[in-house]
Amino acid sequence: MKKILCITLIGLFATQTQAQTNTGSSTASSSTSSTDTRKVRVGVFVRGTPSWYSENQNNYYSKGGAVFGLGFGLNLEFKLNEVLAFKTGIGGDFDGGKINYAFNQAAGIYTGYLLDKTPQLIEVKGQNLNSLASNVSTTNALKDRQIHTTYVTIPLVLKMMTKEINGFKYYVDFGANVGVLVGAKATDDVLQASVTTNALTTTKNSSLNMYSDCIPVRAGLNLGIGSEYRLAGTTSVFLGVNFINSFIPTLKSNSVYNFTNVDGAGNFTYAQQSAKSMGVQINIGVMF
After folding, report:
1. Is residue 120 located within the same domain as residue 192?
2. What pLDDT, on the 0 to 100 scale, is given for residue 23?
3. Per residue in 6-54, pLDDT tens?
4. What is the domain extent for residue 206?
5. Which CATH number covers residue 251?
6. 142 and 271 housed in the same domain
7. Three-state DSSP class for 242?
8. How far apart are CA 184 and CA 163, in angstroms?
9. How many domains does the chain have?
10. Alpha carbon 277 to chain centroid distance?
């Protein structure tokens, strides 16, 4: 009887062990081969953006260098099929660029502006410079300008992605960015003349609000490549690099602050300007 009981218990244990092994293998196989069936994915990102301006150079100004900006935001992806998705979302971008200005007093080549006692830029559009004299603290001739802009950005992008390869998926972005300007500041190197002492000094003017000199929206090309790595389940980290090129200039063609060719009667010519934003966005984020 004892032999029969031992044989029976051993048989039951072996059967149960085999069943658990088969179940575990089936579950693991199912987990490995399962695909993400969700129609919408949500993610967050941060990015660094070297950006600069593409300009129509002339005798008064020329292309400057790049500035390094930052951005952050929310991604939304709407799955269209196994390899294609529509990507949008919302983000904040802090970018800009530099402009170099010529100064040749003998040839009458300069770009100037006025500061009030705050000191902030004075709008000269539709004005005579002599009529503004009571509110002016300094007259400034531009040498170099660094512009920092803040945009709320919405991407409108098609995302083409490979199937998973050892945990990785690779993708290509093609589409556009649309942005709304919420702030614009300038930091200038200038030759400055005081209206009280007439003394000329080389100095720096910082945090000048130049929002009125900018076009309040921008739209442009967005091209990118990148990869995702699945951490667990449907959670992935991603790294991507996107090239952006605005079709709409950052600055208005006729400045409301800057002038040139001033005569003794206070008449002047509006300074011409052109600057389209370009940059490279380095994106790091998580998709859930």
Report:
1. yes
2. 40
3. 443 334 334 433 444 444 444 333 333 446 788 999 999 999 999 999 9
4. 40-287
5. 2.40.160
6. yes
7. strand
8. 42
9. 2
10. 10
